[in-house]
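Researcher: Next sequence.
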Amino acid sequence: MRKKQIINSFITIENYQGFLFLINSISKHKSSYIVITNVHMVIEAYLDKKFQKVVNNADIATPDGAPIAKAIKYIYGIDQDRVAGMDLMPDLIKYCGESCKKIFLYGSTNDILEKIKSKAKKAYPCLQIKSYSPPFRELNEDEKKEVIKMINDYHPDFVFVALGCPKQEKWMAEHKDKINSCMIGLGGAFEVYAEVKTRAPEWMQRYSLEWLYRLLQDPKRLWKRYLVTNTLFLILICYQFTKEKILKVNVK
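Model: Next structure:
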């Protein structure tokens, strides 16, 4: 699997169908985790070196968000598909449902988890799906062991994780080699699949404006994040582009 550097994060390079193949193949491994890399995550990794290791140690880092895919094209000349969690989640549920595989949902609220399970089971009766909504606090060591045992006893093909960035990525890294499955940090994809929130129209997705749609849905919580992260991302990408394309200083 090829990876290319965007700021300080290494993003896996593949087309969308290739990612589906890779993810379905990696699910057979003993323990692994996949990060769905958007602008917010890349900036978190830039500001936090420990989190940068979490992102770069992932088995796969998909380019979620059109800005990431476009940055890969501008800097490396690679026509990279956007590989968003909101697309991957229904496609992986379909794959598991048609193959009678098992999915474990970890995170989010009980209400959203029940909506996801109901919708998925209605579409794919053969699908096996179980969930757990952890409390909004740090688990103690005994509780962590109970969660690991609960998941491993279920023998899931995938563990879908929704704790929010960067918490879900740190959780997956912590449980690498402890949970015997492929863990995927899907965050907001849970709410969209459960139809609690709607996704941006396709034209906004094409023009890298999905962040604006989410901002309009939740301005009080997101305005500061997008103001800071989007601005810093543009500055750092321009700097990387200048080094690579104008000054001819190679990046990886």
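Model: The CA atoms of residues 163 and 212 lie 22 Å apart. The chain has one domain: 3-193.
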